[in-house]
Design brief:
By secondary structure, the chain is mainly α. 38% of the residues lie in helices and 8% in strands. The protein has 23 helices and 14 strands.
Length: 628
């Protein structure tokens, strides 16, 4: 490995803050490290500062992956919408996480991780066992921030230690390390971290959200899966992107063994997760509910049931889940037709192609299902007896909204689709339904409060969040940064790439499907697909696993990164129309006309963020991102 780089800092300008307060040790609020680390109370404040650098994963202003791709469209002028339309700039990069003047500052986080690791053993009134745990958590966070930068910027400088301000200017001007070097470094940090972390959280009231062995092991699996994926594994597009010695930043030789390393890491993470008490979520109710309702709620609850056992890493109580619910929530109670006071905004809109990616009721793509009338999917069709727990009987909707898998109805609200919620939780035969046409309870209100495409990501809304009188009340939940279904599907992907289809690949893939009422992939394709042998080949099963990830993890911020690591983003996101139904129309015949509300744009250069021109000029040893 190359020389491990350091990062510069200045004590004079360092303000130390935590989730609670600034450390008010001296009158001007500038804390010297001797004071910070002279007792446990101050050291604890500094320690929790490290967690404070994490982005708000449920906040679309922090997490570009929520809205910066093609899963969500909105008429709002958010930065992420500008980003998704290809308006990135090296003069002033959008979602710039490289510098120190932005909302998210990983390099400052790494500086503080290094300070903490260098000084924590100076604290006199702590046991070594407690110090060791905090050290393990700091190493986990240090690994995470490197991973965060790696996904955004590709090859990055490894920040192992800080540089004193007395160092010469040449030492400060550091360059990128190769992707393989960064991956090796992050994995080594995580191995050290895992050894010192608890298997699970026991003091739930105080510690939920802090690092555990399952969390660190899953991060390790994700790092190695990224390294094995086409974006970074033998990608010849980047052959000319080299350091001063001519070494490509991204290796130019495909290495299949990387998939096996990733699969082994996934299995290790699964073992840690099971040992730590994690399992796939299943919804329980004291009421007599139909299987169809329970299947829907299994997936919704995996996201919104606070600290449920499926969540491996959740972000502790986060008020922004109220915000994301507000924009994802369709109005469904007929009593509130046309009202605006205290109402939800509802402008988080899923485009038509996302609605079409979900499977048929038989668990295969709708354009492969030999029993599904794909060509008639846009025809106006009333809800019927067979779909009575999914779509309002007799309501004039379209074929696309009928005979779909439970995850379609769990993830999306759409015209005519029923919504299980607190209003009628005791009786799933009398649920409210979406009426998305103009004049309907869920339809257009004003130029701000409406859904453009006709599809709401209902999956992100807790079923106990509600609208009443002139108020909206959200049931906040812990955002699932990592959950077990994600890990199962990642293991299936890595194992298929390493060894091809196998009983074990099917096992983990099918466990996720069966939780939502679907048969296993082999039986489903053999019985209903026009390509019945698809799951029996590595290429065919790869396509199935990719689709499973896009469906199961929809709207959670994974599609954005998966399309990049699969090196599909330039194919899927370039000039992609964001289509939906005609929200301003009032009748089924006019509403069900496809409108195009815009396009996403993506080129090869967009796989990596540009570093601002100012930072490049300040450091001649730092190469600009490929294509910029």
């Amino acid at each position: 490995m190359k020389k491990i780089h350091k990062i510069i800092f200045s004590i004079v300008f360092l303000f130390v803050f935590s989730c609670e307060n600034y450390i008010d040790i001296v009158p001007d609020n500038v804390a010297t490290f001797d004071l910070v680390f002279n007792n446990r109370t101050n050291a604890k404040k500094f320690f929790f500062t490290l967690y404070g650098y994490l982005p708000g994963f449920a906040d679309y202003n922090d997490n570009v992956a929520l809205v910066g791709g093609d899963e969500i469209w909105t008429h709002q002028t958010w930065t992420a919408m500008t980003f998704s339309q290809g308006e990135q700039s090296k003069a002033s990069p959008l979602f710039d996480h490289w510098g120190d003047g932005n909302r998210i500052t990983p390099h400052i986080a790494l500086r503080d991780c290094n300070i903490f690791l260098n000084r924590i053993n100076d604290v006199p009134d702590m046991t070594q066992a407690e110090k060791d745990r905090w050290i393990a958590e700091a190493k986990f966070l240090k690994a995470y921030f490197h991973f965060h930068l790696l996904r955004m910027y590709g090859p990055i400088p490894i920040i192992d230690e800080n540089i004193e301000v007395s160092e010469d200017i040449i030492s400060v001007r550091i360059g990128r390390d190769t992707v393989d070097e960064v991956v090796d470094y992050v994995v080594s940090l995580l191995d050290e971290s895992i050894a010192g972390l608890p298997s699970q959280i026991f003091l739930e009231g105080d510690e939920l959200g802090r690092a555990t062995q399952p969390i660190a092991a899953m991060l390790k699996a994700k790092v190695l899966a990224l390294s094995a994926s086409p974006q970074f594994n033998g990608n010849s597009v980047y052959a000319s992107w080299t350091d001063d010695e001519g070494t490509p930043y991204i290796n130019q030789t495909y290495d299949e063994n990387k998939w096996q390393l990733a699969a082994d890491a996934c299995k290790e993470a699964i073992d840690y997760a099971h040992a730590g008490g994690h399992s796939l979520f299943t919804f329980t109710s004291s009421y007599d509910l139909a299987d169809e309702t329970l299947y829907k709620m299994n997936l919704r609850g995996a996201i919104t049931d606070r600290w449920n056992d499926e969540i491996i890493w959740g972000q502790a109580y986060n008020p922004t889940t109220s915000n994301i619910q507000n924009v994802s929530f369709p109005r469904i109670d007929p009593a509130w037709v046309g009202q605006t006071a205290g109402q939800v905004n509802s402008y988080y809109s899923a485009p038509l192609h996302i609605a079409e990616q979900f499977y048929s009721i038989n668990g295969v793509p709708i354009d492969e299902d030999t029993t599904y009338d794909y060509n008639a999917r846009y025809d106006i069709t009333p809800g019927d007896e067979a779909n009575k727990f999914y779509v309002k009987e007799g309501y004039e909707t379209i074929g696309l909204h009928l005979n779909r898998e439970p995850r379609f109805y769990a993830s999306l609200a759409a015209d005519g689709v029923l919504s299980y919620d607190v209003n009628n939780e005791a009786d799933d035969t009398s649920l409210f339904h979406v009426d998305a046409k103009n004049g309907g309870v869920s339809g257009y209100i004003n130029e701000r409060q409406y859904n453009q495409t006709g599809y709401w990501p209902k999956k992100l809304v807790h079923y106990k969040s509600f609208i009443a009188n002139d108020s909206y009340t959200a049931e906040n939940y812990s955002w699932p940064v990592y959950r077990l279904a994600d890990l199962y599907l990642l293991y299936a992907e890595c194992l298929n790439e390493a060894q091809g289809p196998s009983t074990e690949v099917y096992q983990y893939l099918d466990e996720v499907r069966e939780r939502s009422g679907l048969d296993g992939v082999v039986n489903s394709w053999a019985s209903y697909s026009s390509n019945p042998s698809k799951p029996t080949t590595k290429d065919g099963l790869r396509d199935i696993i990719h689709d499973e990830r896009l469906i199961e993890l929809a709207f959670e911020g994974h599609r954005f990164w998966d399309l990049r690591r699969w090196y599909k983003a330039h194919l899927v996101l370039n000039s992609t129309p964001m289509e939906g139904w005609s929200f301003s129309r009032a009748t089924p015949e006019t509403y069900y006309t496809i409108d195009n509300y815009g396009f996403t744009e993506f080129s090869i250069r967009d796989y990596f963020w540009p570093i601002s021109e100012a930072d490049i000029l300040a450091n001649p040893n730092l190469d600009q991102a490929f294509g910029w």
